[in-house]
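We store chain and fold; example below:
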Amino acid sequence: MKNKLKAVVLLSGGIDSTTTLAIAENLGFAIYALSFRYGQRHKIELEAAVRVARNFNTVEHLILDINLRRIGGSALTADIAVPKRRNIEQMGKDIPVTYVPARNTIFLSYALAWAETMGAADIFIGVNALDYSGYPDCRPEYIAAYEKMANLATKAGVEGKQKIKIYTPLIAMNKAQIIQKGMKLGIDYSLTHSCYDPSAEGLACGQCDACLLRLKGFEEAGMRDPIPYKR
Protein backbone atom coordinates (compact mmCIF):
# COMPACT_ATOMS: atom_id res chain seq x y z
CA MET A 1 0.00 0.00 0.00
CA LYS A 2 2.87 2.40 0.78
CA ASN A 3 4.12 2.47 -2.81
CA LYS A 4 0.70 2.74 -4.42
CA LEU A 5 -0.79 5.98 -5.69
CA LYS A 6 -3.82 7.05 -3.67
CA ALA A 7 -7.21 7.47 -5.31
CA VAL A 8 -10.48 8.81 -3.91
CA VAL A 9 -13.41 6.77 -5.20
CA LEU A 10 -16.98 8.03 -4.80
CA LEU A 11 -18.96 5.04 -3.56
CA SER A 12 -22.76 4.96 -3.36
CA GLY A 13 -23.08 1.19 -3.07
CA GLY A 14 -24.68 0.77 -6.49
CA ILE A 15 -23.51 -1.12 -9.57
CA ASP A 16 -21.71 1.80 -11.20
CA SER A 17 -19.73 3.04 -8.20
CA THR A 18 -18.85 -0.51 -7.14
CA THR A 19 -17.57 -1.36 -10.62
CA THR A 20 -15.62 1.90 -10.68
CA LEU A 21 -14.00 1.03 -7.37
CA ALA A 22 -13.03 -2.41 -8.69
CA ILE A 23 -11.50 -0.84 -11.79
CA ALA A 24 -9.49 1.63 -9.70
CA GLU A 25 -8.22 -1.19 -7.50
CA ASN A 26 -7.37 -3.28 -10.56
CA LEU A 27 -5.33 -0.36 -11.90
CA GLY A 28 -3.20 -0.57 -8.77
CA PHE A 29 -4.47 2.40 -6.78
CA ALA A 30 -4.73 2.45 -3.00
CA ILE A 31 -8.47 3.05 -2.52
CA TYR A 32 -9.97 5.72 -0.29
CA ALA A 33 -13.73 5.32 -0.63
CA LEU A 34 -16.04 8.27 0.00
CA SER A 35 -19.78 8.00 0.66
CA PHE A 36 -22.43 10.46 1.83
CA ARG A 37 -25.38 10.42 4.17
CA TYR A 38 -27.13 13.35 2.53
CA GLY A 39 -30.74 12.87 3.58
CA GLN A 40 -31.55 10.46 0.75
CA ARG A 41 -34.73 8.41 1.12
CA HIS A 42 -32.76 5.34 -0.01
CA LYS A 43 -30.16 5.66 2.74
CA ILE A 44 -30.01 1.87 2.82
CA GLU A 45 -27.54 2.32 -0.04
CA LEU A 46 -24.97 3.24 2.62
CA GLU A 47 -25.23 -0.27 4.07
CA ALA A 48 -24.35 -1.54 0.61
CA ALA A 49 -21.45 0.91 0.38
CA VAL A 50 -20.08 -0.39 3.68
CA ARG A 51 -20.37 -3.99 2.45
CA VAL A 52 -18.62 -3.15 -0.79
CA ALA A 53 -15.82 -1.21 0.90
CA ARG A 54 -15.19 -4.11 3.29
CA ASN A 55 -15.18 -6.58 0.41
CA PHE A 56 -12.37 -4.69 -1.30
CA ASN A 57 -8.98 -3.71 0.04
CA THR A 58 -9.96 -0.12 0.78
CA VAL A 59 -7.49 1.77 2.92
CA GLU A 60 -10.29 3.88 4.35
CA HIS A 61 -14.02 4.34 3.85
CA LEU A 62 -15.22 7.77 4.88
CA ILE A 63 -18.95 8.51 5.23
CA LEU A 64 -19.78 12.20 5.49
CA ASP A 65 -23.03 13.82 6.61
CA ILE A 66 -24.60 16.53 4.42
CA ASN A 67 -28.23 17.46 4.95
CA LEU A 68 -29.47 18.05 1.41
CA ARG A 69 -33.00 17.37 2.68
CA ARG A 70 -32.95 20.95 4.01
CA ILE A 71 -32.63 22.08 0.40
CA GLY A 72 -34.96 19.49 -1.11
CA GLY A 73 -35.93 19.79 -4.76
CA SER A 74 -35.66 16.07 -5.50
CA ALA A 75 -37.74 12.95 -5.01
CA LEU A 76 -34.71 11.52 -3.22
CA THR A 77 -34.49 14.34 -0.66
CA ALA A 78 -38.07 15.58 -0.33
CA ASP A 79 -41.63 14.26 -0.07
CA ILE A 80 -42.01 13.90 -3.83
CA ALA A 81 -43.13 10.63 -5.40
CA VAL A 82 -40.45 8.57 -7.12
CA PRO A 83 -41.43 7.91 -10.77
CA LYS A 84 -42.32 4.29 -11.45
CA ARG A 85 -42.78 2.02 -14.49
CA ARG A 86 -41.22 4.42 -17.00
CA ASN A 87 -39.81 3.09 -20.25
CA ILE A 88 -36.36 3.96 -21.60
CA GLU A 89 -37.76 6.61 -23.95
CA GLN A 90 -39.50 8.35 -21.06
CA MET A 91 -36.35 8.22 -18.95
CA GLY A 92 -34.33 9.98 -21.62
CA LYS A 93 -36.94 12.59 -22.47
CA ASP A 94 -36.28 15.02 -19.64
CA ILE A 95 -34.45 15.44 -16.35
CA PRO A 96 -36.46 13.47 -13.76
CA VAL A 97 -37.48 14.53 -10.26
CA THR A 98 -34.95 12.05 -8.85
CA TYR A 99 -32.21 14.46 -9.95
CA VAL A 100 -30.64 15.93 -6.81
CA PRO A 101 -29.58 19.54 -7.51
CA ALA A 102 -25.79 19.85 -7.81
CA ARG A 103 -25.22 16.45 -6.13
CA ASN A 104 -22.21 15.35 -8.17
CA THR A 105 -20.71 18.83 -7.91
CA ILE A 106 -21.04 18.67 -4.14
CA PHE A 107 -19.70 15.12 -3.93
CA LEU A 108 -16.75 15.86 -6.22
CA SER A 109 -15.91 18.94 -4.16
CA TYR A 110 -15.56 16.83 -1.02
CA ALA A 111 -13.56 14.25 -2.96
CA LEU A 112 -11.32 17.02 -4.26
CA ALA A 113 -10.75 18.39 -0.76
CA TRP A 114 -9.89 14.94 0.61
CA ALA A 115 -7.60 14.19 -2.32
CA GLU A 116 -5.70 17.46 -1.92
CA THR A 117 -5.38 16.94 1.83
CA MET A 118 -3.74 13.52 1.40
CA GLY A 119 -1.67 14.49 -1.62
CA ALA A 120 -3.68 12.41 -4.09
CA ALA A 121 -4.24 13.51 -7.68
CA ASP A 122 -6.73 10.87 -8.78
CA ILE A 123 -10.51 10.83 -8.28
CA PHE A 124 -12.87 8.15 -9.62
CA ILE A 125 -16.60 8.61 -10.17
CA GLY A 126 -18.99 6.11 -11.74
CA VAL A 127 -20.99 8.46 -13.93
CA ASN A 128 -22.48 7.02 -17.10
CA ALA A 129 -23.80 8.83 -20.17
CA LEU A 130 -25.72 5.93 -21.75
CA ASP A 131 -27.94 3.93 -19.37
CA TYR A 132 -28.81 6.74 -16.99
CA SER A 133 -31.83 8.86 -16.15
CA GLY A 134 -30.88 12.07 -17.95
CA TYR A 135 -28.87 13.73 -15.16
CA PRO A 136 -26.86 16.73 -16.42
CA ASP A 137 -23.97 16.02 -14.02
CA CYS A 138 -23.27 12.63 -15.61
CA ARG A 139 -22.13 14.02 -18.98
CA PRO A 140 -18.52 14.01 -20.28
CA GLU A 141 -18.54 17.78 -20.81
CA TYR A 142 -19.50 18.31 -17.18
CA ILE A 143 -16.64 16.12 -15.94
CA ALA A 144 -14.16 17.88 -18.26
CA ALA A 145 -15.30 21.27 -16.97
CA TYR A 146 -15.07 20.16 -13.35
CA GLU A 147 -11.58 18.75 -13.83
CA LYS A 148 -10.44 22.05 -15.34
CA MET A 149 -11.97 23.94 -12.42
CA ALA A 150 -10.34 21.57 -9.90
CA ASN A 151 -6.89 22.36 -11.22
CA LEU A 152 -7.61 26.09 -11.03
CA ALA A 153 -9.10 25.96 -7.53
CA THR A 154 -6.58 23.96 -5.50
CA LYS A 155 -3.32 25.04 -3.91
CA ALA A 156 -1.58 21.96 -5.25
CA GLY A 157 -2.86 22.65 -8.76
CA VAL A 158 -1.87 26.32 -8.78
CA GLU A 159 1.60 25.54 -7.42
CA GLY A 160 2.05 22.83 -10.03
CA LYS A 161 2.66 20.12 -7.43
CA GLN A 162 -0.03 17.84 -8.84
CA LYS A 163 -2.61 17.75 -11.61
CA ILE A 164 -6.02 16.51 -10.56
CA LYS A 165 -7.41 13.81 -12.82
CA ILE A 166 -11.05 12.72 -12.67
CA TYR A 167 -11.56 9.20 -14.00
CA THR A 168 -14.90 8.13 -15.45
CA PRO A 169 -14.21 4.57 -16.64
CA LEU A 170 -17.92 3.83 -17.24
CA ILE A 171 -18.85 7.00 -19.08
CA ALA A 172 -19.35 5.33 -22.50
CA MET A 173 -20.59 1.92 -21.32
CA ASN A 174 -24.15 0.70 -21.09
CA LYS A 175 -25.37 -1.10 -17.98
CA ALA A 176 -24.87 -4.57 -19.47
CA GLN A 177 -21.27 -3.74 -20.38
CA ILE A 178 -20.67 -2.38 -16.89
CA ILE A 179 -22.00 -5.56 -15.30
CA GLN A 180 -19.93 -7.76 -17.63
CA LYS A 181 -16.83 -5.73 -16.78
CA GLY A 182 -17.57 -6.09 -13.09
CA MET A 183 -18.06 -9.84 -13.34
CA LYS A 184 -14.64 -10.15 -14.99
CA LEU A 185 -13.22 -8.28 -12.01
CA GLY A 186 -14.92 -10.69 -9.62
CA ILE A 187 -17.55 -8.33 -8.19
CA ASP A 188 -20.30 -9.85 -6.08
CA TYR A 189 -23.25 -7.68 -7.12
CA SER A 190 -25.41 -9.13 -4.35
CA LEU A 191 -23.56 -6.67 -2.09
CA THR A 192 -24.89 -3.68 -4.02
CA HIS A 193 -28.11 -1.65 -3.91
CA SER A 194 -29.66 0.58 -6.58
CA CYS A 195 -33.33 1.18 -5.74
CA TYR A 196 -34.57 4.74 -5.19
CA ASP A 197 -37.62 3.66 -3.22
CA PRO A 198 -36.88 0.46 -1.25
CA SER A 199 -39.28 -1.14 1.19
CA ALA A 200 -38.86 -0.77 4.94
CA GLU A 201 -37.13 -4.15 4.84
CA GLY A 202 -34.68 -2.88 2.25
CA LEU A 203 -36.13 -4.75 -0.72
CA ALA A 204 -35.80 -3.11 -4.14
CA CYS A 205 -39.09 -1.91 -5.64
CA GLY A 206 -38.33 -3.16 -9.15
CA GLN A 207 -40.26 -0.25 -10.70
CA CYS A 208 -38.21 2.95 -10.28
CA ASP A 209 -35.77 4.11 -12.98
CA ALA A 210 -32.77 2.76 -11.08
CA CYS A 211 -34.31 -0.69 -10.68
CA LEU A 212 -35.50 -0.87 -14.28
CA LEU A 213 -32.10 0.13 -15.66
CA ARG A 214 -30.42 -2.37 -13.34
CA LEU A 215 -32.76 -5.21 -14.36
CA LYS A 216 -32.36 -4.30 -18.03
CA GLY A 217 -28.59 -4.42 -17.63
CA PHE A 218 -28.55 -7.86 -16.06
CA GLU A 219 -30.98 -9.20 -18.66
CA GLU A 220 -28.89 -7.88 -21.54
CA ALA A 221 -25.75 -9.25 -19.90
CA GLY A 222 -27.44 -12.68 -19.80
CA MET A 223 -27.38 -12.82 -16.01
CA ARG A 224 -29.81 -12.85 -13.12
CA ASP A 225 -29.81 -9.93 -10.73
CA PRO A 226 -28.73 -11.43 -7.38
CA ILE A 227 -30.52 -8.93 -5.10
CA PRO A 228 -34.07 -9.48 -3.74
CA TYR A 229 -37.06 -7.49 -5.01
CA LYS A 230 -40.50 -6.87 -3.58
CA ARG A 231 -43.00 -9.33 -4.98
In short: The beta strands are 6-10, 30-37, 58-65, 122-124, 165-167. The chain has a mean pLDDT of 93.
